[in-house]
Amino acid sequence: MDINIGISQNDRVAIAEGLSHLLADTYTLYLKTHNFHWNVTGPMFNTLHLMFEAQYNELALAVDLIAERIRALGMPAPGTYSAYARLSSIKEEEDVPKAEMMIQQLVEGQEAVVRTARHLFPLVDKVGDEPTADLLTQRMQVHEKTAWMLRSLLAS
């Protein structure tokens, strides 16, 4: 069935591709955050364990919103580890780093998601895709705030 929402097929494809990168970054950050939640140790254990849990729970909800926007644009949402590995700008962590390195990596991951969202904005603005712009704005606000909170833990 044709989709007639005022955005051309080519633009919907391009937006969905950008959102697929955002989805991959978000899912990869979710997985990394969950991993760190399980494996954090040290004097900040309780604080970080709880903080990471709140963060991965928020990310779990976000992946659904992003995937649903891709589907609303009429495209399939990527949903495999191989697709996420190909699409994500966030590197997986194979080891169990010290708590401070975990925090640093999560700051970098949060900032990477912001950059991915920001990169998509010009196209979304050009074609008047307000629902995607709203989603991107909300995601950027969450990730910028989370990065700030994580950076605050590293301040001396």
From TrEMBL:
Record-annotated Ferritin/DPS domain positions: 17-155
Cross-referenced Gene3D superfamilies: 1.20.1260.10
Keywords: DNA-binding
Keyword match DNA-binding: yes
PROSITE patterns to which the protein is assigned, alphabetical: DPS_1 (PS00818), DPS_2 (PS00819)
Signal peptide location: none
Molecular function GO terms recorded: DNA binding; ferric iron binding; oxidoreductase activity, acting on metal ions
Pfam families on file: Ferritin (PF00210)
Highest taxon of the lineage: Bacteria
Keyword Transcription regulation: no
PANTHER family referenced in this protein's UniProt entry, alphabetically: DNA PROTECTION DURING STARVATION PROTEIN, GENERAL STRESS PROTEIN 20U
Protein family (similarity comment): Belongs to the Dps family.
Protein name per the record: Starvation-inducible DNA-binding protein
